[in-house]
Specification:
By secondary structure, this protein is α/β, with parallel strands linked by helices. It contains 13 helices and 18 strands. The strands form 5 sheets. The protein has a 6-stranded mixed sheet. A 6-stranded parallel sheet has the order 12-11-13-14-15-18, with helices on both faces. Strands 3-4 form a two-stranded antiparallel sheet.
Length: 457
Amino acid sequence: GCRMRAGNSSPHCAGAVRSPQKCVSVSNVCFEAEQIILHGVDGTAFDRLNGLLNRTRDPSDAFSRLHPAHRPTVLLARPGDAFEYLPLAIGVKRSLRKRRHFLSRHIIGPAPAEGFSPAPAIAFYTTWSNSFTELFSRAVVQLFELWCRDLPSRDVHLIPAMWGSNWGPDYARFWLHPFTAHAVEPMALTPDRPDVKPMWRALAMERSVARYREASAAMFAARTRPRCFLRATVCDYSNIPSPRHARPWAAMQAVVAFHAARPAASAASPRQSSSAASASPGSDGAGLLRVVLANRTGRRRLLDLEALVAECDGWRPPSPHAAVRVRCVSHNFGVGLVASLPVIADSDVMVTPHGADMVNAFALHRGSSVLEVMPVHRAGCPCQMYKELLSSEGGGPPAVLHYQLRTKNRSMAVAGEGKVGYNMDLRLPWPALRRALLQVLAVGGRADNYQYTTFAY
């Protein structure tokens, strides 16, 4: 079971989902190198942990399993014994015939002289552990529910299997520090940027493997205590949870509130009542609808964005919304979510191509809308991901109302350097966006009026 302590009193936790997660509770446990070392006498813990991790996905590959017995990942404590293991950075399926080439060595340490820490600890495994959006949709939303149900504060040690990298953005600070006051020290090191794919595919040269071993050993040596706990909860967060069992909007609001040091948006937000909600049919139709269009600089850009923004900003909706003023701006969400918060807080509608920018939609106020512009070529596209995440908030009505703009017209996709298929830039005609915005106005930000709708472009 996952039960650890009394629930959290944070206002963001109201309505916490009570459905059980894929977690195992273990006692007298240490986290050494990349392994979970069991010092306890509970004879079933080893089998229960391996049973959980056998169904867990690889940290670098959502299409492969972790294979804890093959690595190995869980060991019974025999202090002084040396063992070899396959690092989490190496894909098991890719390395079967070359396993010995990638093995690392570790010697099991003694039980801690100061005893096992009584502090709560959560260790968890996720996949695509260096992706901002994947970390949120798989791990953060589930960790948030466990934190809400069982932990009274940020006094908890979080131990992800792999998380972010030393060379990219600080994903531990952004995603995990809202829930812990302690340093986040992953079990395994993410390789240097050029080595990530060669290591996972078991194609890395010997010098890269040796460099990774040295860097991992340095990380292990620099860890702070405690690494041994009287009790820890180990969870599999490698799957995107059902919308009935997660509240991604509430999770993001908690993260945003921590970083912005201000209360998260609520159902009674003045922004909602003064904007889209007041422009709904049956009211006087007055109000301001604030629209932000994503100015992407990499893949799947919206072409002719300035012209689209100008058309949108000059639009005067027809009756019964003729009194509504529509204000449209563009914004580069690539500057980061925290830097984008002022724009997000001042928006009722977000328009963005499918991709990582969509995660910003969960920071919008309740009753806002997001228009997801889908790629023309969808091979390899996780195209239902945001639709599912936004379809419900913990089994109840959605907090942010989601629509998709779709097309089969190949002329709407424009190839560029390195941009083919799924990653091609997109042409979004103003009439298609206008139809979607009319639907937003008709719904008026009310979940009871809302139905998922697609619009052709």
